[in-house]
Structures are given as structure tokens and as C-alpha cells.
Design goal:
single chain, alpha/beta, Nucleotidyltransferase, domain 5, 2 domains, eight-stranded mixed sheet, six-stranded mixed sheet, 40% helix, globular
């Protein structure tokens, strides 16, 4: 069985083709800046191909990407008929707590929850519609970011606002990045040769967005993102947690409408908002090297809040066995990892500088006498999506 994985952003489309007989990735690519100055980066057999090709929308982007999958110059598959199913990474599926076959009800749920994931759900819907147009009839599976967090205890997902808002419109913490947290927790258990149920894991998924998750008995018991992916730690362009009065104060004094405020919190805040430089940690570090004070404050704030959240989750689980770093920043920025762990030394957590700087992958970077092991584990959300898609489509065929 060959499965196409689709992960749509507001102006991007990421894809992979995975052969589920071997779980081997056959090809992957990213279409960026859909709608304006579009370009595709397509990777196969270790080779990278770049195309500047206009795409007005996700359908046009998907059409061109699929052409590359069957292109004889760099063959991945001979025909789109070889694709048995499509798995979609989707963010907010409402009351669904597991991966499901996409139908009209799923699409309706995605539409109903746009306000809770304003950047992600419209993009996910665009990806579904694109696949329906380009590959009609192919079974499609929705894998939800929030599903892993349905095990949160009630006292941890409830918000201290009038209970009627939870009862009537389900105002509560949902959590996100669940597919990544699930994968990393299982992978670290495999690497350590222990059942995941025997480990207390704090996973730090740090990328353009970022969230931490406390994983105990193999389940999510606390997580930093909330009712939306804007909450939690500060991110590259998202605010993270704020005094709620900051929002109402800004709206009143700047005469902002809800959509305008939402845009500021999701696109102009976080590291970018403080530094005024960039939403890319590499640019921030370069600015710091040139003496930019605001850039230093932005990155210091980011690292402090992550360390603080790790400490909170040690309380949540009454201990921790492993801290894992994953995501674009977590996997690649050794200085960020080192400075976060340095703030936890009073817990006895210690990092090995040489190991940390060695571009680790599926590797321990803590010292032998560290009270908690620290690892770098590259995430693989696409594999989890492919596995769920295979399972659900296989069950469909047996009915």
C-alpha cells in the first residue's frame, strides 16, 4: 500500500509518499508561497529539485506536485493509480478523539472549529478539496493534532471562566502537536528499550509553532497549547500565554477588531514581536551576535518560558525520566537546547556540551550523572499519519 500524506498551511503544501510495506519514504516535497511567487522543492532518492511554478491555490499546487511524482526524470511512482489512500494532517476536529475516514461530517467539524484554529483549519479544508478534485474517489483519512490530548484530566483542561462556556460552547484546553508528541514518546521508549507506560516524558516540540507535553503512562497528561495553537510558550510569531487583559487593553486602545487582534497574536508576536527582526531563530542568533539587544531579550524570554514549562511538568508528573527535543528548532539549535537545560541545573539536569553540539539524531545529549536524561529525537508525524491511514483503509476493505 502506498499512501500520500498531505499537510497544508495557509500558503504552503507539504507532502510525502510512503510505501507502507516497508514504511519507506519514496518522495517528499514542499510547495511554498502558494498564491504569489510560488515554488516547489521536491526531494527523491537524496536528490533535491526546485521549481519556480505559479500556483494560485492549493489545487494547482497539488496538481503540479503530483506531476513530479510520476515524472520519468525522477520516478517515484508510474501512475497515480499506485496511490491507495491519502492521509491529511488536520488540527482541530472538535469532538473526534481518534483518526477517522473523511466524510461530510468531518468536513463540517473542520468548518465549525475554524475560530479555534484560524490558520490551520482553512488550510486543511483546502487540502481536502484539492485532493477531491485532483484524485476523486481516493479514500482520505483525517489525523487530528488534538486527538492525543483527549486524555488530559478535567482539572487540567478546564479554564477558570464561568462553567457555562464549557458546557455550551466547549471552551477548554485542547492541545495541539499531538501527532508529534505521540511519535516521539513511542520512539524514545523504543530507543531506551522500555515500555512507554513506564516512562515520564516531557517532549519539547519547538518549531515555527511550539508546544510542550507531559506524557505519563503513554498518555498526554498536560500540554502547553490551549483552546487554540496560540497559547503556551512564546513562539516564532505567536504570542503564547498572556495576561488576558493585554488583549482587551490593546483592542480598546488601538481600536482593534477581533480578527485584527487575532492576526497580531498569531503573526506579529512572539520572538518576531519582541525582536522586530525575524520569526526565524537563526536570524535572531545572528542579530544577537551583532549586539542587537531586543533580539537577545526575545530569545532569552523564549528559552526561559520553555524551561519554566518543563519545571511545571515535572510537578504535573511528580518527576521526569526523559526530556526530549524535536521540531525544527528543537532538533537543530544546539545553543537553544543548552540554554534551556542550563536553567534546570538546580534539578540536577545536565547537558553534555560535546554531545549537544554534534548534530545529534535519536541521541542522548545529557551527562551520565544527569538526574533526567535529555535526548534529541527527530519527529515523524507523516509516518504516524500513514500508519493510521493504512489501518483505517484496511479496515474499510475488510467490511
Amino acid at each position: 500500500m502506498k499512501i500520500l500524506i498531505v499537510n497544508c498551511g495557509s500558503s504552503s503544501l507539504k507532502y510525502q509518499v510512503i510505501d507502507m510495506e516497508t514504511e519507506e519514504m519514496l518522495a517528499k516535497g514542499t510547495y511554498e508561497r502558494i498564491g504569489e511567487n510560488s515554488f516547489l522543492t521536491h526531494k527523491i532518492n537524496g536528490e533535491k529539485y526546485e521549481f519556480e511554478h505559479p500556483a494560485k491555490n492549493h489545487t494547482e499546487a497539488l496538481e503540479f506536485a503530483l506531476e513530479q511524482l510520476v515524472n520519468e526524470k525522477y520516478p517515484c511512482i508510474k501512475s497515480l493509480d499506485e496511490i491507495d489512500a491519502i492521509g491529511h494532517r488536520l488540527v482541530h476536529g472538535g469532538y473526534y478523539n481518534k483518526s477517522v475516514l473523511i466524510d461530510d461530517d468531518i468536513i463540517d467539524q473542520l468548518k465549525q472549529n475554524i475560530d479555534l484554529a484560524p490558520t490551520h483549519n482553512p488550510a486543511g479544508l483546502a487540502g481536502i478539496e484539492a485532493c477531491k478534485k485532483v484524485m476523486p474517489g481516493k479514500p482520505m483519512v483525517a489525523v487530528f493534532d488534538i486527538a492525543f490530548h483527549h486524555t488530559l484530566p478535567e482539572e487540567r483542561y478546564i479554564y477558570p471562566v464561568p462553567y457555562e462556556y464549557y458546557e455550551n460552547i466547549k471552551v477548554r484546553k485542547y492541545g495541539y502537536h499531538g501527532t508529534s508528541h505521540f511519535y516521539v514518546s513511542r520512539k524514545i521508549a523504543e530507543l531506551k528499550g522500555k515500555p512507554v507506560e513506564d516512562l515520564k516524558i516531557i517532549n519539547c516540540h519547538l518549531g515555527q509553532g511550539g508546544s510542550l507535553c507531559a506524557i505519563q503512562n503513554g498518555e498526554s497528561v498536560d500540554t502547553s497549547m490551549g483552546i487554540s495553537p496560540t497559547a503556551g510558550i512564546p513562539m516564532c510569531a505567536r504570542s503564547g500565554d498572556l495576561d488576558p487583559s493585554v488583549v482587551t487593553f490593546l483592542m480598546k486602545n488601538e481600536n482593534l477588531q477581533p480578527d485584527e487582534m487575532n492576526y497580531i497574536l498569531n503573526n506579529k508576536s512572539g520572538i518576531l514581536g519582541i525582536s522586530g527582526v525575524s520569526n526565524d531563530v537563526r536570524d535572531i542568533e545572528a542579530a544577537i551576535a551583532k549586539g542587537n539587544h531586543r533580539a537577545k531579550v526575545a530569545l532569552d524570554h523564549y528559552k526561559y518560558k520553555i524551561a519554566q514549562t518543563i519545571a511545571m511538568y515535572i510537578v504535573s508528573m511528580q518527576g521526569a525520566d526523559v526530556i526530549t527535543f524535536t521540531g525544527g528548532v528543537g532538533e537543530n539549535q544546539a545553543g537553544v537546547r543548552a540554554d534551556i537545560i542550563k536553567q534546570l541545573e538546580f534539578f540536577g539536569v545536565k547537558i553534555d556540551e560535546e554531545l549537544n553540539n554534534s548534530k545529534p539524531e535519536d541521541s542522548k545529549i545529557s551527562t551520565e550523572d544527569s538526574s533526567v536524561e535529555v535526548w534529541v529525537v527527530p519527529t515523524n508525524e507523516e509516518l504516524v499519519i500513514a500508519q493510521d491511514t493504512k489501518r483505517i483503509v484496511s479496515e474499510l476493505k475488510t467490511k
